[in-house]
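SECTION: protein entry
WANTED: fold as tokens:
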Amino acid sequence: MDIVFIRGLRIETIIGIHDWEKRARRPLILDLEMASDIARAAATDRIADALDYDAVTRRLVQAVAENRFELVETLAEHCAAILREEFGIPWLRLTLNKPGAVGEGVDVGVVIERGERAANSAVRCVLSDASR
């Protein structure tokens, strides 16, 4: 399995359970690791054959900016569902960081993994040949 990653995606949004949090936009930081077989893209050198991290980034910025959630957990699940459904990503790890949520200089957030991590296809072939 190959991994395409996006780190440090900063998106301004309104999120939180307290009244004061619901009145002001604040930054969230997303880090993503997404399963993708890059072999075809590497062979063709065409973006059409790759997981387009620019398209992923634009879609997440849109989704986060347009919605309001109280919990980072809910937002993380929403983002994971978009990525898996709209981009066909079989496995991802998403880290959502809400800087300063419980005090200056203190970051909080969640890390979720969704989907199945595919084993390396070469390993699968060796194992299936060995079982014959």
Q: What stands out?
A: The CA atoms of residues 24 and 79 lie 21 Å apart. Confidence is low (pLDDT under 50) at residues 121-132.
